[in-house]
Structure formats: structure tokens, C-alpha cells
Amino acid sequence: MEGNTTRTLATTQTSFEIIELLKERGGGRVTELAEELDLAPSTVHSHLATLIETGYLTKEGDIYQLGLAFLELGEHVRTRKEPYAIAESYTEQLAAETDSRAVFAVEEHGRGVYMYTFSGDHAVWTYSSVGKRFPLHVTAAGKSILSQLPDARVEEIIDQHGLEPKTDNTITSRDALLEELATIDKKGYAINREEQLDGVKAVGVPVFGPDRQVLGAFSVASPANRMKGEWLEDELPEIILATANEFELEISLT
């Protein structure tokens, strides 16, 4: 093995490619999976049989589906760090207090991941389902997190994932994003001005662990026609900042 080359096992990689494909398709047959992955049906069948034997897949007729074992794994991952579990009640509190959609998100492998999401009376659908990954540069939560990462890490994330536009308002310039992150760091909160979805704005605030490293972010989203003026620029940021402070205080005492 030379340099920093990472050694991977092809069989393990194939199993995960099959799992991801089953998730995307909502299930599939051996021949369909083999054709899409450009593998022999016998190879795909061997992987599927192993995953069924270990309890991670189910089979209904000739259709293979992800099994409920993944549900237990997902819940374990979501609560493996105590602060993650504590964030749930604060996210729910934010949704109730603001009558909007509130989320708690973290960064992993240069992407954002929604850990919790709750809806208030004026909530809007924002793709923010639990476990879903998203580009950090298009959301208030993601930009909040980016604003607290070391410059070298931010550059690494941009190099790895790029700055793909989701709407006409998405920041796609490296320099413009870095300038905005500096402003967010100074203000203490980020605003998503229809950068992920047309017609939806959001405010996000970073949260820190006892070691003062960024842990994640809370954010609140609503229809753009509701997110304006003092509510967007002053009142909502103050509510989220207060919630973040309460959360940080609680985890510092645990």
C-alpha cells in the first residue's frame, strides 16, 4: 500500500451499493439490481442472501426490501452521543414556540444530516426528513456549522462537494460563501434566503459542545412571505439563540 491510498474490500463495497440502491428504488429484483450495478445476477443474489441471513433485508415474493434492523441501527446512531439525544426536546420546543418547522442537524463527511425535525402550525415541507443528507452551503443550519469550522476544513468540504446550486439564490461562489460565513460568525446566526427551496426561508444557529467545538445547529424554516422584517432579522434569531444557549447549558452539566 503506497502513500495515503485506502484499502477497501470490494465485496463490502458491493453490499453497501446494493443497500443504497434498494433504498433509492424502494426495493428491487435480482435482475434489476444486477443490471443497474453492472454485476452478474449470481453475484447480486449472493449478497442479497447474506443480507437476508443477517436480518438486514427481507423478501416479499421476488422483491427484496431493506429490513427493520436498520431502524434499530439508526436510532442507536442518533442517540450514541448524549447531546444528540438531548437536542430532541429543544428542537420540538423550537417548533412549538415559532409555529414553524424546526430541525437539529450535524455535519458528517462534509454533508449535513438531519437528526431531528418537528413541525409547528405554520410548518412547510423542506426535505428535512430524519437521516437525510444535504449540502451544507444551501441551508441555514449548514452555513451555521460551516461558519464554525476551521478554514482548512471548509476549503476541504468545498473541494470535495462543490457548491451546486439548488435555486437561483444558492451561493455558488467560493469567495461569496467565505464572506458570508465570516458575517455569520460575527452575527451568531445564519439566514437561508430561499437558497435550498424557492419560497422557503430559514434561520440557523450553531451549537457547541463543552469543548467549544461546533456540535451541530438548530434552524427554523417557514414560507418566505412569513419570514421577513423584524421577525426574520431580529425576533426569530433571538428565539433560536436563546434555545441554543439553554441546550449548551444543559449538556455542559451532564
In short:
With 254 residues, the protein is of the alpha+beta class. It has nine helices and eight strands.
Structure overview:
The chain has nine helices and eight strands. The model is unreliable at 1-5 (pLDDT under 50). α2 (30-37) crosses α3 and α5 (82-98) runs antiparallel to α9. By secondary structure, it is α+β, with helices and mostly antiparallel strands.
Largest sheet: number of strands, sense, barrel closure: 6 strands, antiparallel
Write down how many β-strands occur, each being a DSSP E stretch of 2 or more residues.
Answer: 8
Strand portion: 15-25%
Q: How far do the termini sit from each other?
A: 44 Å
- Which strand order does the major sheet show? 5-4-3-8-7-6
| Cα shape | globular
C-alpha Rg, in Å? 21 Å
Number of alpha- plus pi-helical segments: 9
Structural class: alpha+beta
Note the run of SSEs as H and E.
Answer: HHHEEHHEEEHHHEEEH
Question: Which helices and strands occur, and which strands form pairs?
Answer:
Elements: H1 10-25, H2 30-37, H3 41-53, E1 57-60, E2 63-66, H4 69-79, H5 82-98, E3 101-108, E4 111-119, E5 133-134, H6 140-146, H7 151-161, H8 174-187, E6 190-193, E7 200-208, E8 214-223, H9 229-253
Antiparallel strand pairs: 1-2, 3-4, 3-8, 4-5, 6-7, 7-8
Helix pairs in contact: 1-3, 2-3, 5-9
